[in-house]
Amino acid sequence: MTDFSATRALFDIPEGVIYLDGNSLGPLPRSAADRVKTAIEKEWGSMLITAWNRAGWMALPSRLGDRIGRLIGAEPSSVVTGDTLSIKVYQALAAGLELNPERHVVLSDTGNFPTDLYMAEGLLRQLGSGYRLKTVAPEEVVDHLDETVAVLMLTEVDYRTGRKHDMAALTKAAHDRGIITVWDLAHSAGALPVDLAGANADFAVGCTYKFLNGGPGAPAFIYVAPRYAEKVRPALSGWLGHEAPFAFDLDYRPGQGIERMRVGTPPVLQMVALDAALDAWDGVDMTALRARSIELGERFIAGVEAACPQLRLVSPRNPEERGSQISFAFEDGYAAMQALIARGVIGDFRAPDIMRFGITPLYLNEADIDTAVARLAEIMAQRLWDQPDYHRRAAVT
Ligand SMILES: *Cc1c(COP(=O)(O)O)cnc(C)c1O
User: Which ligand 1 atom is nearest residue 113's CA?
Assistant: First the structure.
């Protein structure tokens, strides 16, 4: 059994704060500051450039990839870290399209995160005539899987509502029609059990600063199914994805397997912070995490619905159909969230009217949920949100 009071002690959350935004930026793992300090002083400071070999910096992207792989049901040596999620979306999509050259449509849904769609648009424009991005309502995806579609590109858990696609079923339906799949796990990795190998997924990508707690700007990851690992040709053919980077050949030859999805110099300090953050996951059983997430989520929904009739649940009511966040719609949701943050309960807001609350069992318990509900209830009952300060939009919402 996973001991969630022990994992809670691994995080440095400010006194008096209840953090319900781990779906957007995970909190600071206590060990991260020391680990980064050591990397700066003992590695960068003392070893200088020799640290690439002596401190194992060059191996970090694949070593961290394997650590994340365990949490998403990936085979060993099928995940590598680096760059940003937007970049990894581009890489995965480009590789998927090349595996299905006769077809020119990328199918996605209107609930997808904008950057995934933007990156697809940019790539398809470069590929030229005939290539096209088609977006349909999330519940209609399955009806649009036809022989024109080259790649099905979906985010498993919707960033606004928490609605979850059935990855295994959609992957199977896609494969039955000769379609390659690219799954974005931004709101899945560290949020719920993922079984990439079991679902027979082709490509997957995700970020590590949300539920995995890798810190602001932490590197992204990419998964390529072993059956394609030696076959894909990287569109972003950077030198560190070359078979022999230090041969400095003039011609590109893809590296072995997943290594070819590396691009350039890895962000070492960010990777060291992520390495520390992943320690918190070592003893965590993802099935236990899921059970705990559902327990806390149900408690939050029941509390808010009982106390705040102004808020409307927009996450699926069936816990099996959502990820690990709960969203409520409220017309003045932005102001209400600011009022809540001012009272020590941190969630966030997504336009036009969604208040998001991340449910993260690693560091949240029943008492936190109850306090958060009580503060929200007070704000709603007394219209405490209705102050000019709370209506002023900041750059990041
Ligand atoms: C958070 C998120 C991103 C962010 O991409 P970055 O390149 O890391 O800024 C992309 N896609 C999805 C689905 C996300 O949830």
Answer: 13
Give yes or no: residues 70 and 138 share one domain: yes
Verify that 168 and 94 share a domain, yes or no.
yes
What is the C-alpha to C-alpha distance for residues 100 and 88, in angstroms, rounded to an integer? 19
187 ligand 1 Cβ < 6 A:
yes
- Residue 1 pLDDT level (bands cut at 50, 70, 90): confident
pLDDT at 396 exceeding the cut of 90: no
Alpha-carbon gap, residue 383 to 124, rounded angstroms = 48
C-beta 356 within 6 A of ligand 1 = no
> Is residue 396 a part of any domain in this protein?
no
| Range of the structural domain that residue 15 is part of | 4-28+285-391
Active site residue 184: yes
CA 187 to ligand 1: nearest atom:
15
- Residues 178, 63 share a domain: yes
Ligand 1 closest atom vs CA 87: 7
Helix or strand (DSSP H, E) at 356: strand 354-358
Q: pLDDT tens-digit profile of 159-205?
A: 999 999 999 999 999 999 999 999 999 999 999 999 999 999 999 99
| CATH code for the domain in which residue 15 is found | 3.90.1150.10
My answer on whether omega of the bond before 267 falls inside 30° of 0, hence cis, is no
Binding site membership of 334 for ligand 1 (Cβ less than 6 Å): no
**Structure tokens of 246?**
């230090």
The predicted-structure confidence for 319-334, as pLDDT tens digits, reads as follows 999 999 999 999 999 9
